[in-house]
Structure formats: C-alpha cells, structure tokens
Specification:
Elements lengths: L5 H4 L2 H70 L2 H9 L3 H9 L10 E6 L4 E6 L2 E2 L10 H11 L8 E8 L2 E9 L15 E8 L2 H11 L5 E3 L8 E5 L5 E6 L5 H49 L10 H18 L2 E9 L2 H8 L1 H19 L4 E6 L2 E8 L3 H16 L2 E3 L2 E3 L3 E8 L6 H17 L5 E3 L2 H22 L3 E10 L5 E12 L3 E3 L1 H11 L2 H16 L6 E6 L1 H5 L3 H12 L6 E5 L2 H5 L1 H14 L2 E7 L6 H7 L3 E4 L1 H6 L4 H16 L4 E3 L5 H10 L3 E3 L9 H9 L11
Parallel strand pairs: 15-16, 18-20, 20-21, 21-22, 22-23, 23-24, 24-25
Antiparallel strand pairs: 1-2, 1-6, 2-3, 4-5, 5-6, 7-9, 8-9, 10-12, 10-15, 11-12, 13-14, 17-18, 17-25, 18-19
Helix pairs in contact: 2-7, 9-10, 10-11, 13-14, 15-17, 22-23
The structure holds ligand C2E and calcium ion (CA) (2 copies).
Length: 733
C-alpha cells in the first residue's frame, strides 16, 4: 500500500457535492410531503364541502317534504271541514251515515289521509275510520295527549280565528301528520251552540309506502322513518305539538364529495408518484454525475500532486502528505522526521550523458528510494535531483539515521543507467518535528539547511538540523551584505603569490589572489567569500576588480607573467570576453602575459558554450590554464578536447609526493601526459624542497607554493624582482 494523503482519498469538493445533493434530496422530500399534504387537504376540503352542500340540500328537501306532507293534509282537512254539505249533515240532519260515507270511508286507499275521526265537543267519537274500516270505540291509540293538546287548541279558538290546526303526532299506527278542524259551513257560519259542535280529525301516517313515495318525489335515496332515539346525522327530526321528538326521517347521504375524491385521488397519487420518480431519477443521475466529477477531480488532484518523471509525490504532494503526518503525530503523540536528500553527481551525469540518461537515473533512484522508504512513508521528488522522505514514529532520530545510512549506502553503489554506470552519491539533511509541533514549511526548510551543511562538509553524508545553522545562515547573510559594500567601496585588495621557473627558481610571474579585510572583523578567507560572491552573483564585479587591479599593477612588472582566477559564473557571462579585452586595452598589457585560471566545473557542465568562450578568449591572445587539476573529475578527454594552454596540478597531488613512490609515479605519468598534449604544467602548493625537486624532475616547468613565497603585497614582489632566485638548491640547473 502506498501512502495516499487523506484529501486524495476523498476530496473536499466531493463531500460538499454529496452533502449538497443529500440536503437537496431532504428539501425535496419535505417539499413533496408538504405539497402532497396541501393537495390532499384541499381535495378533502372540496370533498367535504361538496358533501356538506349535498347534506344541506337533502336536509332542505326532507324538511320540505315533511312540511308539504303536513300542509297537504291541512289543506285536505280544510276542504272537508269548511264544507256546507258537511255542516248541513252534521248539525241540521245529524246524518251519521253521511259522515261515515263522506269522511270515514274516504280513508280507504286514500293518499291524502288514512284515518278519519269525527269527535263531538267533549271529544267523544261520533265516527272513526282507519283505512276505510270502522274503528272500534277504543281510540286511545290515536287520540293521544298530543292530539288532545291540538284538539283543545282548536276547541278554544275564538270566532275570528280559523278553527283548524295541524301537527305531527305519534299514534299506535306510527308517526303521522294530524289535522283537526271544526266542521262548519264554507262561509264559516255555525248555527249550533258550542256544546253541539263536531270536529273532524285526519291522520296521514308515514307508512313505508308513504315514505317511499316521498323518497321518489323528492329524489331522496334511502329515505326512511326512524325512531326518536335513532341516528343524529342525515336526519330531520319530527316534532310533536309540544316540540318533543317523536321520530325522524333519515336518508342515505350520497356524499358526492367522497365519490369525486375517490375518483380524483388515484390520479393525484399517480401525479405525486410520477414527480417523486422524476426527482429520484434526477437525484440518481445527479449523484452519478457528481461521482464522475469527483473521480475526475481526484485524478486531476492526484496528477497535480504527482511528479511525472518519477511517479512520486511532488512538492505539493509532499506538503499534503506532511500535513497528514503532522495531524497524526499531534493526535498520537509521535514525532515527524523529514529526510531531505540531494544527489551529488546528478548534474555531472546530466551534462555528460544528456537529459535522457538523467531521466533514467532519476527513475532508478526513485525506484530504489521507494523500496528503502517502505510503506506508510511519504516519498517525494521536489524537482531536479532533490528528494524527501517523511514519516512518523516515536523518537524517530534513530530510525531516521538508519534510513539515511541505508540511502547513502544505496546511492554509494554504482547505478546502471542503460549502458552507463555511475556512482551518484547524495547529501542528506534531517529534521525532526517533536509531536508534530514544527510546521511543515519550517520542517522542510530545516532539512534543506541541514542538507546544505552535508554538501559543504564534503557530500555523501547526512546531517541533523541544528539551530546554530540558522545563526550561521544569518551570519552568511550579513557577510554577503558586507561583501557587497566592500566591493562597492573597493575594499577588496589583491595579493600576489610568486610563481617560479623550476629550472632556476627565479621569479617567473605571479598569481593574483583576492583579499578582504572585513571591517570590524578582520581578514576573511577567499575560501569563504569567493563561494558567497559566486552564489550571489557578486563574483562578476569582484573578479573584474581583481583583474583590473592586477593588470594595473603588472604595468610596473614588464618582465612578469600574471595569472588571474576566473569563476565559472564569470565565464558564463557573455560579456566576459569583451570585458577582459577592455581591461587589457585600458592597462596596455600584452594579452599573452595574462593567464586565466579556470576550474573544470564549467567545462564539464557546459562543454559547448565553454568551447565557444574559450575560442573567443584565445582570439584575444589570452592564455587559459586548467586549475586544480587532479582534484576532481578531470579526465584526459577534457584535456584533449579543450586544449588548455597550461595545467595546474592540484595541491593534493603535490602533497602526496614524498608519501609514496607510487604517488610520484602517478604524478610523473600525469605530467608526461599533459606534456604529450603540448600543455606545460605548473605545480601548486609546493612546500618542501623535496617536492620542488621531484616536481621539476617530473617535468613541471613552473612551481608555486609557500616554499617559493606566500601571497604578498605588490611592494614585496617589487623587491623579489630585483633579488636573485626565490630558492637556493644545491644542484640548481
Ligand atoms: P587557488 O586558485 O587554488 O589558489 C591557490 C590557493 O592556494 C591560495 O589560497 C594560496 O594561498 C594557496 N596556497 C598557495 N601555495 C600554498 C602552499 O604551499 N600551501 C598551502 N597550504 N596553500 C597554498 P587562497 O588565497 O586562500 O585562495 C583560495 C582560493 O580562492 C583560490 O584557490 C581560488 O580558487 C579562490 N580565489 C582567490 N582569489 C580569487 C579571485 O580573485 N577570483 C576567483 N575567482 N577566485 C579566487
Ligand atoms: Ca588559482
Ligand atoms: Ca589551485
């Protein structure tokens, strides 16, 4: 399993999208529920309202039916009671049989009344018929207290009142409309005393057939007579003269609202379901689109965090990984360690063999580091030839040191790049964040600084960050500021080291060396300030300043040759050649007296351009010497390719003379080689007479070193010019 930063596992945007979709779904569900509830409530209301309307209409119809039922009876009674023939036969002829025929027998199959009673003033029956049949004297079932109440009312009516009354009553035959009227002439005239008066009572019962007829006439389905204690809805109560409920007419409600609702509801449910399905589809497809987007986003993010060449995390990936490690360290109380490594020999390989080989090298180093770093560790390529490994653990110093050693061992072995083999080596800086308390940026900065320390101290090693490094960096910055000021103030001076002819040890020439007496600090070694000048670009000014001073001084020494050191940075400047030409012109120095000393670095890094610059310089007549030969990579190939005017043997080679005969052998072979290529050789750092002799014997024509003279001021050289040989040896040639 490879380490994957948490945000790559699931990106923030995806989470946002997911939760957005989820909350949208929730909102949608809520809206759907609300809308459905509203629609169904509205439908219910409409249905209820329709039901209510129907209920009211039915109630009105039933009430009307009942009222008409009673009124019809009252009208019929009026016709019979206020009737001249009836009055004549009742009061004048007193013909009971006529009354029986015209009142009682009419109750048979009569839709207008089914019971007819004739009562005298005291309420005694004169004639009594039910359904056309004479009733036996027992009338209590009909002349109930309610009927008596009504009868009394009619009996007591004044002459100016209509002597009739009607109502509903309960009889032994059921609930009936009853109408009572005084028998009298149509004109209302009455020829008998009150005690002689007769009354006619008609009953019309709400029998099953009657009710059915009403139902048909008034379009009231299910109309039925119910007892007083029956249901309370869909019923119109029937009241007695004393306003007591004696029964009711009930009907079956048609509930048109319910019927309509029953028809509409499935349609509405269908619509709701369709909308829900539509939204669900929308949600699903939205979610899919989101998933696709987030996958693409994750891929893009992963690519953005990955180094193309090595497949490792890049700088952004390292930061992301470190962030996760810091969180982990803080929560688990662990430490974070960071190894920052820089390949030592990458540039050389790249320059010598080309970028394709360089790429192969980066890939194989990456593969090796991947194995060494192992799982659960953040491995990253920060660009160029810089890598970083980060991990968490308890007291990581030991683990980190072991890992650094393993990496150094691995890169200390020859690496195969296609057909080529090279030892690359690396410098490592190590920094530790206790409990993850050091921010990532700072952790990287510290490891980087420690890595530079490894470089400075000779490469191929690891260094643990120390706070003093910051102070040194600070000191270096101050030094840089002071150096800039010193160059501006022309405080950089030049000393000259004698160079002697090896045959007679006489002064042949001088090498100009820069000196800086830093204000308030004292002398600073060129080994310190030259690298600073090189890395800050100040070397252009400084180098030119030394060249001008030395050439000016040289005007007073027409017999001497001059060597001046040139840094790769100066050589890289396209204006360099013309600047040298200008100084020579200004000072009037013969170009062939000037030798520019260059180290091999630049020739290895930029062979083509170096060649061009060299050719241009040669055209001016200036000579070029390869400085520090034997200290680095130099190969015979370079010597032949560039055809230097002179070789300067590095001090380290010279030092080894006198140590062993093999060293002398090597020295001799080297000088012989250079001479075979037509390149005279200067030996540097000659400190003993033995060395001087051996070098001369080996074939070095010029010698330089403390034995012959330290770098000194111009006035000392003035003196040396006038005195004899720099050295007196027994067998000086
Ligand atoms: P270099 O070009 O190899 O200069 C020779 C260095 O070796 C000088 O050190 C000199 O003092 C020292 N040296 C000479 N003879 C002996 C000896 O017998 N024994 C020992 N132990 N040392 C000896 P210095 O002056 O400290 O310069 C160091 C380096 O700084 C020079 O090495 C050169 O690379 C650089 N440098 C000095 N001046 C300039 C300059 O004006 N321009 C540039 N680009 N580099 C300069
Ligand atoms: Ca030199
Ligand atoms: Ca040198």
């Amino acid at each position: 399993m490879r380490f994957v930063p948490s945000h790559l596992q699931r990106s923030a945007a995806t989470l946002d999208g997911r939760s957005a979709v989820r909350s949208m779904l929730l909102i949608f569900a809520a809206v759907m529920i609300c809308v459905s509830a509203m629609v169904f409530t509205a439908l219910d209301r409409v249905g209820h309202y329709a039901n209510q309307l129907d209920e009211n209409r039915s109630r009105e119809a039933v009430s009307g039916a009942l009222q008409t039922f009673g009124e019809q009876l009252a009208a019929t009674l009026h016709d019979y009671a206020a009737w001249d023939d009836a009055a004549e036969n009742t009061y004048v002829r007193e013909d009971i049989s006529w009354l029986d025929r015209n009142f009682g027998e009419m109750s048979a199959d009569n839709q207008l009344f089914d019971v007819a009673l004739i009562l005298d003033h005291s309420g005694q029956p004169v004639s009594a018929y039910s359904d056309g049949e004479r009733m036996q004297p027992e009338l209590t079932g009909f002349v109930t207290p309610d009927v008596w109440t009504l009868f009394d009312k009619v009996r007591r009516m004044q002459a100016d009142e209509l002597p009739e009354a009607s109502s509903f009553v309960s009889t032994s035959k059921g609930v009936a409309a009853v109408a009572i009227g005084l028998i009298r002439a149509k004109s209302g005239e009455l020829s008998v005393a009150a005690e002689e008066t007769r009354y006619v009572l008609f009953f019309r019962h709400l029998s099953a057939t009657t009710v059915e007829r009403l139902a048909r006439a008034y379009v009231l389905p299910g109309l039925s007579l119910i007892p007083p204690s029956g249901q309370i809805s869909h019923v119109v109560p029937i009241l007695s003269p004393t306003n007591a409920v004696i029964g009711g007419l009930s009907w079956v409600p048609r509930s048109p609202g319910d019927t309509s609702l029953a028809q509409v509801r499935p349609l509405v449910w269908c619509a709701v379901a369709m909308i829900a399905i539509y939204m669900l589809l929308l949600f699903v497809s939205g979610n899919q689109a989101l998933a696709r987007l987030s996958a693409e986003e994750a891929t893009a993010l992963r690519l953005a965090m990955t180094d193309r060449l090595s497949g490792l995390a890049n700088r952004s990936g390292l930061f992301a990984g470190l962030r996760d490690l810091v969180i982990k360290a803080q929560s688990e109380g662990k430490d974070v360690a960071l190894l920052y490594l820089d390949l030592d020999g990458f540039k050389e390989v790249n320059d010598a063999y080309g970028h394709a080989t360089g790429d192969v090298l980066i890939r194989s180093v990456s593969a090796g580091l991947r194995v060494l770093a192992g799982e659960e560790r953040v491995l990253s390529r920060l660009g160029g030839d810089e890598f970083a490994i980060a991990f968490v653990g308890f007291d990581v110093h030991k683990t980190a040191a072991e890992l650094a050693e393993r990496v150094l061992d691995f890169l200390g072995e020859p690496l195969t790049m296609g057909e080529r083999v090279a030892v690359i080596g690396c410098s490592i800086g190590l920094s530790v964040s206790r409990r993850g308390l050091v921010p990532s940026e700072e952790l990287i900065r510290r490891a980087d600084m420690a890595m530079y320390r490894s470089k400075e101290e000779g490469r191929g090693r690891w260094t643990l960050y120390d706070p003093s490094m910051d102070e040194e960096r600070e000191e270096r910055n101050l030094l840089e500021l002071d150096l800039r000021a010193a160059i501006d103030a022309e405080e950089i001076t030049v000393v000259y080291q004698p160079i002697a002819d090896s045959r007679n040890f006489r002064l042949y020439g001088v090498e100009a060396l820069a000196r800086w007496n830093r204000k308030d600090h004292g002398p600073v070694s060129p080994d310190v300030f030259i690298p600073i000048a090189e890395s800050t670009g100040l070397i252009d000014l400084l180098g030119l300043c030394v060249l001008r001073t030395a050439c000016t001084t040289l005007k007073a020494w027409p017999d001497l040759a001059l060597s001046v050191n040139v840094s790769p940075g100066q050589f890289r400047d396209p204006a360099f050649v013309s600047r040298v030409g200008k100084v020579l012109e200004e000072t009037g120095i013969e170009p062939s007296r000037l030798t520019l000393e260059l180290t091999e670095t630049y020739f290895i890094q930029n062979p083509q351009r170096a060649r061009k610059t060299l050719d241009l310089l040669r055209e001016t007549g200036v000579k070029i010497a390869l400085d520090d030969f034997g200290s680095g990579f130099s190969s015979v190939g370079y010597l032949r390719q560039f055809g230097f005017d002179r070789i300067k043997l590095d001090r380290s080679l010279v030092e080894s003379v006198g140590e062993s005969s093999r060293a002398v052998e090597m020295l001799r072979a080297t000088v012989a080689l250079a001479r075979s290529l037509d390149m005279p050789v200067t030996a540097e750092g000659v400190e003993s007479e033995a060395q001087a002799l051996a070098l001369r014997l080996a074939g070095c024509d010029l010698l330089q070193g403390f034995l012959l003279g330290r770098p000194v001021g111009a006035e000392v050289i003035d003196r040396l010019r006038r005195s004899g040989p720099l050295l007196q040896l027994p067998n000086t040639a």
